[in-house]
Structures are given as C-alpha cells and as structure tokens.
C-alpha cells in the first residue's frame, strides 16, 4: 500500500478511485481495511502527514461563539488530561482535532464503551431522538470494532459482574436510581499501556488496491449539474500543490466539525451547500459536557477506591481491565425526563506514589532519582500488596493518592440552534472557517445534578464515606455550573429518515446525493454519554458492508473501464 504525498504530485494530477475516503483517522482507516485486497480501488485522502506537524493543525481554527464560556468566579473543570497529554487541556474548544494519519488516536487515551439501549430509543421527552436501527442489530459491527481496537467483550453493565475475576462488591445501590457502568481501554497489542494508534493500523494496511494520499486537504466537493452525484473533489496542500479526484463513491470521515464545514462550504452547484437543501447541515451540534460532581477527603480515598477502580477478566489468553462507575438508571431518566449520564472515578496520585516512582526508575528516568529511590525503599509492603492485587486478584494497581473525585460526561438534548455555520474568516485555502455555537441546555444540567445527588445519598446509605458535592450543585446555583467540551463533536450531519431533521439516511448516504456517504460521530442521531470511538467504528463496519454490497453489484466492465480511464488520465510515478 503506497503512501503518496500531494506536495510531490505533478500539477494537474487527477485521481480516479472507486472510493475516495476523506480523512485518514480511525473511521476512514476502518472502512478502508474492509476493502483490502478487493477489486475496489480505494484512495484515503489525509489532510496531514504520517507525523504530527504544527502547521497542519492551524487548519483546525474555529470562531467559537458558544459554550464553554468564561464566567466570573467559575473555574473550568478542563478536559481531565494529565501527564504527557496535559497540554491538550489548553487547546481551544472544538480545535482539538488531529490532522495526521491516525487522526484522533494520536492523542487519545483509548477509553471506550458502547451506548446503552435507551440511547438508541425514541424518547418522547427528547425531540428528534431515536436511531434507525436497534442496539442488537449493531452488535456484530461493534464486536468487529472491538476486535480491531484490541478490546475485551462488549459488556459495559452489570452483566460484567459474572465475568470479572474479582468483581467489586455489589453494594446495594438503588437500581431505580443508579446502575453500574464500565469503560475499557484500547491498547496496542505489543505495548501494554500504550493506547492504540491508528497510524500503526495504517502501516499494517498492506493491500495493492488501497492508497493513502497525505498533505491533501479537500477544499470543495463539486456535484454534477443535476446536483445528484459527486463530480469531483478539489485537493490542496499548504505548499501550494493541487489536484483533483473523480471518484465513483465518496465517504466523508473528517470529524464532527469538518464534515459539516466541508458540506456547507461546497457551493459550486448548490448555493446553500451540499446536502443542505433543508438547512440541516451543521445543526444539532452536541458534545459531551464534562464536569466534576463530588470529591472525597484524602482519608476516605481507599475506602471508596476499592469499589470503584479497574477490574480484570480473562479473555483469549489476555487480561482485560474495566473501569467501574455509575450511571443514571433508565427508570429515572424516563420518569424525570432526563438524559443519560455516567460518573467515573478520577484519582490524583501523590508525588510520593511508589508505583509512579518505580515506573520512572524502570524506564531510566533520573529526573527524581534520589526521591524515587527513597519512596520505593520505604514502600516494600505497599508494592507487594499492589502486585498481589494486580497479578492475583486482577484489579487495578494500588496508588498513593492525594484526591479522589467523580467526574461526569452527559448526553445532550438536541437543539437545532446548537450548530456549526460558516464565519466570515477564511483559512489559508480561502475556505470559510467554522463558526461554532455550542449550547448546553437545562436538561443536561438537571441530569448532572440528579446524578450527583443520587451518588452522594447512595454512598452514605451503603456505608461509604460522605462525599462533598461541588459548590454549584450543593448550592443549586445553575449560574455557576462548570462544564467543558470533551472534543467529541457529534450529530452535525445526523442520521434519520426525515430530511427536515437529518442529513444522511439509515445507510449513511446524504439525502438526495447518490454515492456521497458520511461516517463518524457527526452521523449519530443522538450523542449518548459514552466516548464515541467504539460506536463510530461499529457504524463504520456497518457502512463498509453496505458499500461492498453496493459496489459488488456493478458489472465487471465498469471496473475495467475505470482502470483504463485512470491509466489514461493519472500521471505515472506519483
């Protein structure tokens, strides 16, 4: 599989693949993998290069006019990154996108979960909710996605208790209020603890029918005169190179902001943008508002952490670890007309944590050599107990921590006025910069407060220490609610059967534009509360199956004629 660079392409180059995939992130690469060694020729078009380059990231600029906003006396909870990824907390809202082969996995921590059944239901109190498929019908695609992500079984609720080697105690939380929820983490197969990087997936994608073109930003989608099919794509590089693509099928996989932006900015035939005849493209922008709910005194950390930590199960010769948290029950969501949300534990490790000190020593980090040696020397019993816990009990490692809190990510009630539009500013290619107006509504705020108060009361009722609610929840002062985005933009090209409230149909094809498909979190009909990667890849598997069936129905002569056309038009040696 060749990786080509647009900057070295001769002027006037024209590519003619069967399928053009816009975006070389996890979604685009997942779809491409499904075509490996088929008779369908695939071109993956990536705006960045094989490595992270600061210049490319300037193309992620937005004009942010909505949430999160700075409020007097309100401290932002941040995105929660720490360690080597702490710098990500400083990236402006909706600009935390990676123009690099491998996309978002360049900087993620691997956190994965699937949506709950209620997330896909039509909920009367949530307008435009409901998915055009069931959770059960998505299961095969999600299982394939889990295998690609090197995950364990796709279980994220109480069913895990019977599978875990040493499960947490079932404390008797009121199931009418709270339900267990788990997350697992995607890791590289040969490097334990290293999140899976899809740049490595790309490197392993060796197939003669698949090509990757880097440093190639798609600046416009041109329709034919009828406005019913894609005629061509314009490609540009920051160095001034340009080319065009004339594909049979296009799959737009550029992310929740960029998918909408590119459709809106492509006005050569349709003045309102591609697929935007009803003005829906860019609407219903959702993310996962994140906030802190409560925290415990330092003396109480161990009593709580033993119930809310990582727990392992054996799966095909490997141990898979799941993080235990709690979510609002479906019953309370229905009764009180709330949205889904889940709380997860966050431990802040002490500077004197023996395991952190031992890890630094083992990897040759001498920055704290004297203190690390002293900490390890004073902690043989602590390290022995942690080893037993990890290797025998298959539980999360014991750490010496200074703080334990519970954070939340909450689903959003869709709002048509929460949206991506185009600003008057333009990027280096002359394409309008996105204008992002993200709104957080009262339903999200009430859901978060309900979860926090339920947690606090149920902790005490079950004999755990009393937590301290954050001030705005304790004082019921919504004006001081503190939320931030999680760089999970969703729903801007949402899936549905009604073109007045959706952009793509149940097969992910843009309404009215044959052969133009969209993939990724932008097609979510509703955003759920869980990290989106597993769901996006499950939907990508589903879309790939649909595209293969669609393209396999073509007569063999069609493929041959396209091959001849490319040999005639494309410039050799690119």
UniProtKB/TrEMBL annotation:
Cofactor: FAD
Residue ranges annotated for the Glucose-methanol-choline oxidoreductase C-terminal domain, each copy included: 416-540
Highest taxon above the source species: Bacteria
Gene3D superfamilies hit by this protein: FAD/NAD(P)-binding domain
One Pfam family recorded for the sequence: DAO
GO molecular function, one term: oxidoreductase activity, acting on CH-OH group of donors
Annotated FAD dependent oxidoreductase domain residues: 18-256
UniProt keywords, alphabetically: FAD, Flavoprotein, Oxidoreductase
InterPro entries on file: FAD-dep_OxRdtase, FAD/NAD-bd_sf, GMC_OxRtase_C, P2Ox-like
Family per similarity comment: Belongs to the GMC oxidoreductase family.
Protein name: FAD-dependent oxidoreductase
Organism: Ensifer canadensis
